[in-house]
């Protein structure tokens, strides 16, 4: 019983939140890492692409809601998601046509492109704030929980409890599907193969007849779709606020770099590493030990490695350690 | 040109050289700096009270009150001190309304007011640290100290049967101050704070914070943050994980957005926010409106009251000398006596002239405790069916 209680506490406060947050970071990092792998620059506007796509989804969702269309116990936003993705993709493609293409054709170095993306970031920042405002918005509807903490307690009769949110379940299903699909797409399809060829050796790929503009377009489409997906899932689970999305850029890049910038599998792993290192290191194990250890051995304090004040520092320490000892990241991406 | 300059300077000197029987009161506020948007209506409110007193003709045998504004800058203690010295030595004011920021207030109090025996009434300095300075009866404030809110909240928590709690505060001076004052007051009442940890505003994920708080455990969680910032993130995560079922919110959390977001999920949550059921606040709002002042702005009632209290104390002492009237300040503010509301300063002056007693209530229902700081009126609030309900006043 005590063992079960300890497990449940751990699952409720470390495992589940870690997996959800990790999955959200991973989706964000996937988009950033694809752009880096193929276009060879860190896209600073990625966080704001997330915000833009989420905003488009919310706007479509409002239309659906006004028309009285719902999605049962699932959030209506999921229904609006395809439309949101389309809007975000069109917007990003327009940005590429208006801004990035010029610089790509002038063969500027990647640092210049990073600065260009910084400019794009500020513009997108402004557009999102102008259209939907700066406020914090909750747009999840439908049933919030698959089961609540109170229900779980009733079923199991344990002292400790566990809650599973609909959004957590959706996030987990989506990340599994997306990663599987992306893996298949990059490994098995002709387009995916040409993208990987372009990423490995641009000149060789060009000589083999890969159409660069087409690869670039597909990368942007994928990255915008992934960003919207990540943004909407994150927003459903927490809330939508343009400023927070902008700040998400840091953990997302940390995740991408830790996993190996340019490596999709690495981005997923990196997302989980960053999320768990933030939550695990700052978690207080007092309650868990309380169930596991005999009374005499129990800690008086909180049994916490670091206080939560250092949460952000933890992910950056992981980042620095990885860069020091394995600069190409866990999955050997391009050196960041 | 030179003649024009001399002429205008001498005009200025003539204009500022008030008549002998006039009483000058300094208004030292942060007219520039971080609170520059707050101070203009505050200064206007002080001047409104001064005009009311001057117009009555009853003040100290028909004396007029002349306001002298000066900039404290809020953050530069040196500039604030210099401004106060100028008010005392060259403008020869009889008292100062201000300073407005806690840091500037403590500098002016120790460097200028105490050495010169000058009375300061600050309308807005809330730092608990100011209560620890030995002010020799020269310092008063019409805004309650943050420590006071901590005491009120700790009392409400104890009354409602909370025996242990955790605190999650926003990581800034306000958050730290209020968290430590709640903790010390609650522990004095026999409660236990198992963990008091900060949260950053505008972050993506608060699972780590809530995990640590949940592990520390307690009857309730006190969220000392902002309703549209990290405070809401903490509340959301607590609700999601079922870590705590009882919420306690200090002043900063009670925004409309809190209930718009969480609605009846917060049923049973409680806390406090400033507010009184005194009719003075409504009267003052009308007066400021008529005078073209933004009466809804922060600290406007407190500033009107600060100026009114200073002038009423002068009247009670029959003298505008700080040494004479400083002893009368507590008398005019606290019971016993006739209650005086905004717009009734003439009535108060008359009663005092006739040797009577007044109990100044003003726009902020001011009552001085301790060495002379506002007790502050707070409403105790509970959430019922997703709506805020005031249950009583403290």
TrEMBL record, chain A:
It comes from the Bacteria. InterPro entries: ABC_transp_permease, BCAA_transport_permease. The keyword Transmembrane applies. The keyword Glycoprotein does not apply. It is found in: Cell membrane. Keywords: Amino-acid transport, Cell inner membrane, Cell membrane, Membrane, Transmembrane, Transmembrane helix, Transport. It holds the Pfam family BPD_transp_2. GO terms for biological process: D-alanine transmembrane transport; L-alanine transport; L-isoleucine import across plasma membrane. It is a multi-pass membrane protein. Belongs to the binding-protein-dependent transport system permease family. LivHM subfamily. GO terms for molecular function: L-isoleucine transmembrane transporter activity; L-leucine transmembrane transporter activity; L-phenylalanine transmembrane transporter activity; L-valine transmembrane transporter activity. This is Branched-chain amino acid ABC transporter permease. GO terms for cellular component: plasma membrane. The chain crosses the membrane at residues 6-39, 51-71, 77-99, 111-132, 162-186, 215-236, 305-325. It comes from Pseudaminobacter soli (ex Zhang et al. 2022).
UniProtKB/TrEMBL annotation, chain B:
Gene3D superfamilies: 3.40.50.2300. Keywords: Amino-acid transport, Signal, Transport. It comes from the Bacteria. Residues 1-20 form the signal peptide. GO terms for biological process: amino acid transport. Pfam families: Peripla_BP_6 (PF13458). The keyword Signal applies. Residues 23-324 form the Leucine-binding protein domain. PANTHER family: LEUCINE-SPECIFIC-BINDING PROTEIN (PTHR30483), PERIPLASMIC BINDING PROTEIN OF ABC TRANSPORTER FOR NATURAL AMINO ACIDS (PTHR30483:SF6). Belongs to the leucine-binding protein family. This is ABC transporter substrate-binding protein.
